[in-house]
Amino acid sequence: MNPAGTETLKRHKDIIVSLSEVLNQIDQPVDGGKDEGFGRGHSGDSEAGSRAAKLGAVEYYLGVNHVETEELSAGEEHLMNCMKLLQKCCISRDNVSLFIQVRNQLGILWAGRDETEKAQEFLENAEAMYRRYMKEDGHPPMDLAEFFMAQEDSLPEQERTKRFEMAYTHTLYYLAQVYKNLGLFEKAGSYCHSTLQRQLEFNQFIPLEWAINAATLSQYYITKTRYMEGRHCLSAASVIADLAGEVPSEAASRENEAEAEKRDQLRQKRAEIARCWIKYCLNLLQDAKKLLEDNIGELDVDRQEELRAARRREEEEEERGRKSAVLFGSTDTFDSICSLEEKVSCVFPVDFEEARVIFLFGQTYVNQAREYFEMDGHVTDHIEIVQDHSALFKALAFFEEDMERRCKMHKRRVDMLEPICKDLNAQYYLLICRQLQFELAETYYEMMDLKLAVANKQDDLDAHTIKKFNSLCAASVKFYQMFLDSVRSPDGKWPDKLEDEVLRPALVAKFRVARLHSRFISSSPTIQLENLNRSLECYNFVVQYCRDNPEAKNVIETELELSEEMASLLPLKMNRLKAKLVSSN
Question: Could you name the domain of life of the organism this protein comes from (predicted)?
């Protein structure tokens, strides 16, 4: 244990000894009335109730300190002693805070033992107690520390309020964790939001910690397509993170260890918030794409108009109805949060111009995130950010009507992904290499499709166009083949049965390679025949694999149907080519 840890442990032990002495000095608890309601004088013996509550406070502090020193059984015993003592008291301004905080501590204790439902019971009891007290009394109650103060040293009402509200904020925070562990994600999100609101309201927060929690909450809202709430959380996170101060310069951090630590922490947390903004923009574009695409993945103009009209009807009502429930901030920060929100939409874009604004906003945060998560030292994080950048380009390309410009966007994706794929060691980063290989293959495939669509509008294909088209086909085949080779065993053999995580990608890759070989343009019948033969081999592979492994049919249903069809048609085409070759000779 480090010296600081030893010192902390010793301090807790000293506190336990002192509290034990206090416990021995106080008279043993005497019988009093049961809990009959809030306020004073309900127990019939206020002195007995006061003595029991004071003993309970000592037991509470003993329990907390035993837990801090990892003596959990002793801690539980003292906390339960506190609970038993409080049963002899009516709940009043003098002890309601103790009633709530002992339940908070027992909730934490049982949650730490993975007894989540037991923790839930204690914490929900604390929550109900707070609400009842605020409804029936509501005056600032006595704080636990005041059990051991002279009356003239009592805390002012403002401080009492602050401490009581802090205890309840902790109740909500712990309940958020409990609900998350129980899989009640909607409820967990709501309690997390309330916790963050209260921390700002009562000025009980550490800026960077609060900002990261708000940014994390935004990701939950994004998964529920609640982009207004997600944007608000992220805007608040960015503004509150700035309260942590300026990033120390490199020169200052080289000279001072504390400054170096602060510099790294600020840069890291702000980069993490930037990554959450990237996800916001990316998901907003991708969800809009899903709503607007037709059955072949192109922009559906009719659907575009429907969405535009529906948005005009709903936007105002939604903004009014939901925003009141999600606002963060105080008078000092609220304007800054709203100002940042105005820079990016929270509604689905319906055309290229709207999508481009979201794309550019996201790209700004890509650059911020990459400044901290550099390739040297943060390999996985850096690559994930580059992949998200690529995905932003892909989502934006969907909205672009000009095929040549769309193709250039995909070329940008290739330019950012290919160097990484080339330099990355597959021995250590196999999964990432496979992701990059497959994405590059798909990107070249999309570029090839776009070039073909442009070429089909021309009467004759010139040599340059044919060369470009074939090079895109070859590049796509190359990366699909690299992916497929990564699935083979070290001695180069194809597995009899593919692992679940590569089953669909591998069979799709085989199917795509088959299609690509049949699309190469050549005036030579011999080369055409060679390409068709390779294509047939790949189609037959997909068909045969699914015969040998029937469970794979559902995973690749559409591609299998097309493969079976092409496996029967290609031999006929190949026979015609062979006949043509024979006759020409």
Answer: Eukaryota
Beta-ladder partners of 371: none
* Alpha-carbon distance values, 361 to 364, 367, 386, 499 (Å): 5, 10, 15, 39
**Distance between CA 472 and CA 55 in Å, rounded?**
80
- Give the SS3 label for residue 308: helix
Sorted by sequence, the CB contacts under 8 Å of residue 56 that are 6+ apart come out as: 81, 82, 85, 86, 89, 95, 98, 102
pLDDT in tens, 520-543: 998 888 899 999 999 999 999 999
* Residue 347 DSSP SS3: coil
Length of the chain: 585
DSSP letters spanning 417-453:
HHHHHHHS-TTT-HHHHHHHHHHHHHHHHHHHHHHHH
Q: State whether residue 241 is helix, strand or coil.
A: helix
pTM of the model: 0.85
Give the chain's mean pLDDT.
87
What distance in Å separates the CA atoms of residue 354 and residue 279, rounded to the nearest whole number? 17
Amino acid at 409: M
Assess contact for 196 and 220: CB atoms under 8 A: no
How far apart, in whole angstroms, are the C-alpha atoms of residue 204 and residue 388?
35
pLDDT confidence of residue 318: 59
Per DSSP, 299 falls in state B
pLDDT for the residue numbered 412:
97
Q: Return the closest-CA partner of residue 101 out of 29, 165, 52.
A: 165
Question: Is the sign of the CA dihedral 506, 507, 508, 512 positive or negative?
Answer: positive
Within 8 A by CB and 6+ apart from 347, the residues are 227, 311, 315
Torsion of CA 483, 287, 325, 330, to 10 degrees: 60
The pLDDT of residue 385 is above 90: yes
Question: pLDDT per residue over 485-532, tens digit each?
Answer: 999 988 888 888 999 999 999 999 999 999 999 999 988 888 999 999
